[in-house]
Design a protein that fits this description.
A hairpin with a 6-residue loop joins β1 and β2. It is globular, with a radius of gyration of 23 Å. It contains seven helices and two strands; from the N terminus they run αααββαααα. The two termini are 23 Å apart. By secondary structure, it is mainly α. It folds into two domains: 71 residues; 156 residues, no CATH class. Strands 1-2 form a two-stranded antiparallel sheet. One of its GO terms (cellular component) is plasma membrane. Belongs to the anoctamin family. This is Anoctamin. It is found in: Membrane. Its main location: membrane.
Length: 255
């Protein structure tokens, strides 16, 4: 069964990324065992490591594109099966192919799709604020002497993290639907505009809470707690989806 170069590239990236994480993992463990004075050096190392990792991955991508013979293939893309338009002779290929005005595609993008994306980003930001307001309210009651466990105070962060995952899931469907409606001609154009929508929303949905705590609230303990909750829960969900769920489906399918 052939899944295409995109799936192969994904698993190649997973292996490449996992191998590259070995060095910062070892240094992170050492930094945790040593004094907090080494934290600044570890942060500087991470900045340099990310830069070197990206450059190494670009080189790896070029190597794979040459090996797989996919260099320059985007210019030869055929129209997508879902691409629709008026049938006419293509000036390049000389064949009858569907033609759709580019200005209509751009009009749909900038007049409809991006305003919807912006509204979704505002919605994600509002959900984040509600979570913080709820947590602040519970902490204030706890400080006034109301008996309240630590888990209950952390519950808004846990619920918010679950909502982040749910919103990401439904937004990806929305992004796919909007990009399909824009009617891009080739698969590479479709993928590029879909990824743009995903990056805009998921940056706000996944990371805005951390920036908000760090630069607006300026509470390092809250930032540490929020980061830990989001990292643990989202990683657990993603690992279950990618590792455990396929195994369970396979085992269930044999019965």
């Amino acid at each position: 069964m052939y899944f295409g170069e995109a799936v192969a590239l994904y698993f190649t990236f997973l292996g490449f990324y996992t191998t590259a994480l070995l060095v910062p993992m070892v240094l992170g463990i050492l930094q945790m065992l040593l004094s907090s004075e080494t934290l600044a050096f570890f942060c500087v190392f991470n900045v340099l490591w990310v830069t070197l990792f990206l450059e190494a991955w670009k080189r790896k991508c070029s190597e794979l594109a040459f090996t797989w013979g996919t260099i320059g293939m985007t210019g030869l893309d055929e129209p997508r099966p879902n691409y629709h338009g008026t049938m006419a002779i293509d000036t390049i290929t000389g064949r009858y192919q569907p033609q759709f005005p580019k200005w209509k595609t751009y009009l749909r993008m900038y007049a409809v799709s991006f305003p919807i994306v912006f509204l979704c980003m505002l919605g994600a930001f509002f959900v984040m604020l509600v979570s913080f307001w709820t947590e602040e309210y519970l902490m204030a009651r706890r400080e006034r002497g109301v008996r309240m466990g630590r888990l209950l105070v952390t519950l808004p962060s846990i619920v918010y993290t679950a909502l982040v995952y749910i919103m990401n899931t439904y937004y990806r469907r929305l992004a796919t639907h909007l990009t399909e409606w824009e009617n891009h001609r080739t698969q590479s154009q479709f993928d590029r505009h879909r990824v743009t929508k995903l990056v805009l929303f998921e940056f706000v949905n996944n990371f805005m809470s951390l920036f908000y705590i760090a630069f607006y609230i300026r509470d390092m303990d809250m930032l540490r707690s929020q980061l830990a909750v989001m990292l643990i829960i989202l990683q657990a969900i993603n690992n279950f989806q990618e590792a455990m769920l396929p195994l369970l489906i396979k085992q269930y399918g044999k019965r």
